[in-house]
Design brief:
about 400 residues, alpha/beta, Rossmann fold, 3 domains, three-stranded antiparallel sheet, elongated, disordered C terminus
Length: about 400
């Protein structure tokens, strides 16, 4: 199916109208046989419900379409040939996607990789290895362009295929230090957003993005995640969408492993290599995606809507996310991770190197590469930490952080 330009404009106007989210959009289009007739019926329906509604102006949406074309991107509407099939299968898929890059990646099997923004060196190294190995098997890597695990997954799969889902418009990269990475992805992979150009991401837009990160993939791998992490929201969406959820086990002494260890207790598939993922996905590649369901029955937190949707036609409840969980990227001033501080002056190398260490041993070579610290500085810092009894050396040039309550590594 391919929409005409006039139909695509109607779709854009309807989804950009006040209080029209994916569920309301679907209900209106199904009832009236198209976005155009739905736009005509919307004022009367709103009046019947005792309210008024602001319908997106034709001129505004025409300007948006012109801006998208000028930006080099394109609109994909639900049901069109290039629209991702895996995303089409989720509950309340976005009616309109704005994409920049190679849409051919949507036709290939994909795995999403998410995790901690303040990731350990071991977590980053594992992410790099798994993403590269999956890419070598023609699997596309999907993530959310966040700091830490997300960024490492994208960089490791640039040569083989990666898709980044944005919470704001395609021209509003967050965090800003990933603008170069986003540009590389647009040239060698694909950027995706359901938001209009120019929209700065807000707090509630990140869970919306998370449902697309999981929805574009056959399975979601969580590498590191503290409790109440935004990565757990992505895992929740994956389970509800009937997709496989994988988690990397970690030390019970490392707070960055608490969320992933919880996922394993709740039924996620343990992942210690890319083979675990490929073997679990083999039946899905053969038989197709299962029906959406709920995996994690223990998540019984209060819920909050992702959209303020109209309820004019007895539409089902709006999609939900976990209230009380930390948004993947907060609306307020962003947390500056140690990785971000590397590009600044007067770097606190000790704090930066310690932040990458955990109870799991990591090679000094990986630590040097991931920290981007001068080799002399790294050696001095490790020597000082060893003298203070804060790190432990292992065979094979591996080091780990001593997780002892009577010491402070900072």
């Amino acid at each position: 199916m391919q929409l005409s330009d006039a139909q695509r404009l109607d779709w854009l106007r309807l989804i950009r109208s006040e209080n029209v989210g994916p569920r309301t959009f679907r209900t209106l289009v199904n009832r009236y046989g198209g976005a155009g007739p739905a736009l005509e019926a919307l004022p009367h329906l709103a009046k019947q419900g005792g309210r008024t509604i602001r319908i997106a102006a034709r001129e505004d949406c025409e300007r948006e379409m012109e801006a998208i074309q000028k930006f080099g991107a394109r609109l994909l509407c639900l049901g069109e040939d290039d629209y991702p099939k895996s995303l089409r299968a989720i509950d309340a898929p976005p009616p309109v996607l704005c994409v920049l890059g190679n849409v051919a990646f949507f036709a290939r099997p994909a795995v999403s990789i998410v995790g901690s923004r303040n990731a350990s060196a071991a977590g980053l190294a594992f992410t790099e290895r798994v993403a590269a190995e999956l890419g070598a098997q023609d699997v596309v890597i999907v993530s959310g362009l966040a700091r830490g695990i997300d960024a490492r997954a994208h960089r490791a799969s640039l040569k083989t295929g990666t898709v980044a889902v944005l919470a704001g418009g395609l021209d509003r990269i967050y965090p800003s230090e990933h603008e170069d990475l986003a540009r590389a992805i647009s040239e060698r992979g694909c950027l995706v957003s359901e938001m209009p150009l120019g929209l700065e991401p807000r707090g509630r837009d990140f869970p919306r993005r998370n449902r697309l990160v999981s929805g574009l993939a056959l399975g979601t791998l969580v590498v590191e995640a503290a409790r109440r992490s935004g990565s757990l929201i992505t895992a929740r969406f994956a389970g509800e969408q009937g997709r496989e959820v994988f988690a990397v086990p970690g030390s019970p002494l490392d707070p960055r492993a608490e969320g992933t260890n919880d996922l394993l207790r709740e039924g996620a598939i343990i992942c210690t290599s890319s083979t675990d993922i490929l073997e679990a996905l083999a039946p899905i590649l053969r038989d197709g995606l299962p029906e959406p369901g709920t995996l994690f029955e223990t998540f019984n937190d209060p819920v909050e809507p992702l959209w303020d949707e109209l309820d004019l036609l007895d539409a089902p409840p709006t999609p939900v996310t976990l209230a009380g969980h930390e948004m993947d990227e907060p609306e307020q001033a962003p947390f500056v991770t140690p990785v971000a501080r590397v590009v600044q002056t007067n770097v606190d190398w000790r704090a930066h190197i310690v932040s990458l260490l955990g109870p799991s041993p990591v090679s000094i070579d990986d630590l040097a590469r991931l920290s981007e610290a001068p080799l002399a500085q790294l050696r001095v810092t490790l020597f000082e930490l060893e003298l203070e009894g804060l790190i432990e050396r292992h065979g094979g040039a591996l080091v780990s952080l001593m997780m002892r309550s009577d010491h402070s590594a900072q």
